[in-house]
Amino acid sequence: MLKSVLTWTCWPLYIRQFWCPDMKSQHSNPVRMLQEDGQDTMQRGMSSLHGLLERLTNGSILVNHVLLAKKYSQQLRNLCTEIDNASNAEAQTWPRVELQLEQCIQQITAIKKSKEHLEALYTLCGTSGIDITVEDGQEYYTAVESNVETYELNELRRLFHFNDLVTEILPPFSIASTNPLFVRLCASQCDMLRDRAAEASQQQARQPLSMPMNGIVQQLCFPVFKHWSTIFQDTFTCSISLRLVEHHFKGVDPSAVLECMAESCRIYGLASEETYQQMEQWIPERVEKINRYFQLMQARDVSSYILRISEILELSGDFQAIFSIQEQTSDEFKDTALDALVEDTLQASLLLLDLTEAQITCLKNFSKCGALVSWLHEKVTNEKELRTFVDLATIATGESGDLHFGIICGLQTSCTGFSSLIYQLEAMSGFPEFMDACKSVFRDLEANPLLPTTLVSCFFTDRVQSLYLFV
Description:
This protein is mostly helical. It contains 25 helices and two strands.
């Protein structure tokens, strides 16, 4: 009926004819103008409108009625004008109604946001094996499961009136709750709590925990946020160690993490407004440093593959640039702070920066082929002999799915894809010559993306030897 009142254009006419604020008297006789069902509709419609105006003030209004009034606020404003005209009111009704309506909308918006925050806490606790105790949790569970629009506003105010501890922690917790680093910190804290509980109860395995809401806030939320803010502050000052940079930021988007940290810490009061205002300037700088560090670590891994390959191929040329990457990224290096990551240290990694993931995988897999390469150098002395061996092996075994067939495919790959590394490098070749030889490998990789995978089939040197004897 309220929706009908707010959307049907004839209602202003009814108000002009029959409105009376106390609904006990009539300015004219509706019986003469309306049939019995029309009179009932008119009275119920006016009662609905009267109730809307009254309950907006005292908070006993249903939330969906508030939302309806907001949606059709222009029509409501016109009706209020008709009421004032019909009642000869000295004061205008609409300004008061508009104020109450906006206040109710603000309260509903805040309650919906609180519900989202509470749902985030419930979800994160649930996935970590911690439940809110039944006695303490019923109120919160009801709040989480509630359909906000079916409640009266006063009831919602009571339902979502939490204690100060919960009210303080929910907004920043919700902001951070979907961040992968924050989720990891929560999971780690939950595991520690469950281990303590298992130790206290002399149980060997972790069990699900039930805790009161205040306990969850104090033992889970507060410690996690303290750790979260410490990472934020240490990153901001560049005092965080490179080992912790790798531990916290590996596999995540550092920009998204730091922006989430800044926002949640600002809301929780762990970061000053001044620090937050500097975010646009310092976050890109820290992200650049973090990304450059991971590039350096990738270069370290690639350099280890290259040095291993140089040993396999018995190359004695100049690999000093690669050795310098290894020296600069020793295990002790990770204990230095982020601000110690200077340009001189990073410069070495630029030599290997352009390598793609697939190219790195090629080098990684080839670095595992030491036994195969040694056998090839001993038994098959050049690329031509290797091609002849592969051709004879293919003829001898056919393509019937024989065990040797996979090895033949791998050898064929070695012939075409890796021959420049296996046969074309001189003993005195160094890093520049090595990278030149890799260009041929990488060209074949573009034509055959399965090149690194196919090479794996050659790892079993004893099978290659048996195939060689078979041929």
